Amino acid sequence: MFDNKVRIALGTNNQAKRAAVVVATGIEPICYSVPSGVSDQPMTEDETILGAITRAKNVLAAEPEADFGLGLEGGLTYDSIHTMQWYLFSVCAAWDGKRLYVGKGLYFPIPHEIGEKLLQGGTELRHIIDELSSTIGSNHKEGAYGLFTNGRITRSDVFRDAVIAALTPFQSTFYK
Ligand SMILES: O=P(O)(O)OP(=O)(O)OP(=O)(O)OC[C@H]1O[C@@H](n2cnc3c(O)ncnc32)[C@H](O)[C@@H]1O
């Protein structure tokens, strides 16, 4: 946990992402929606990481009194080497104006038809998950992870681990 004087700016108003930061750090972030600079539905690992980094930098620029900018981004990636499967993963980038770290949450297999549909374009994962779970705003709640695991893993859980990973180098003396 961080000292409660630390100010964290989070580049989104998404509730699952906000909750992840609160659980990971014990701090209520300043939430401010900023552009990710990437497509609404990132379909590669590189694009997803870039979206997280851009959000982290944009939010610290918008909230310069904060100690850290955090960018959280969800995206898909296709494993064309080992499993020939689509995976959903969640990234956190942490930026203090000098140092940049990225933490990646777990890779989670996604039904093949969903990956292929997203690859064709014209929709986003949240619309598909909303429809499958008969809800609105699944991306602010348990998300795809919650739907597929029956609530055993949530979107917030996955981002929590990514946030802890990205912030650890700023906290732990082992990285000095
Ligand atoms: O409000 P922001 O911060 O933009 O959050 P977001 O959920 O809309 O957007 P992301 O950029 O993190 O994710 C890219 C797309 O993938 C969707 N997505 C990612 N993970 C998801 C999950 O677990 N459940 C449902 N949709 C998900 C998301 O809603 C977007 O449509």
UniProtKB/TrEMBL annotation:
- Print the keywords alphabetically: Hydrolase, Magnesium, Manganese, Metal-binding, Nucleotide metabolism, Nucleotide-binding
Pfam family, any one:
NTPase_I-T
Q: Which reaction does it catalyse?
A: ITP + H2O = IDP + phosphate + H(+); XTP + H2O = XDP + phosphate + H(+)
Q: Which domain of life is it from?
A: Bacteria
**Would you tell me the protein name for this molecule?**
inosine/xanthosine triphosphatase
Give the EC number: 3.6.1.73
Q: What sequence ranges are listed for the domain Non-canonical purine NTP phosphatase/PRRC1?
A: 11-170
Molecular function (GO) terms listed? hydrolase activity
Q: For this UniProt entry, which segments traverse the membrane? A: none
Q: Which organism is it from?
A: Paenibacillus allorhizoplanae
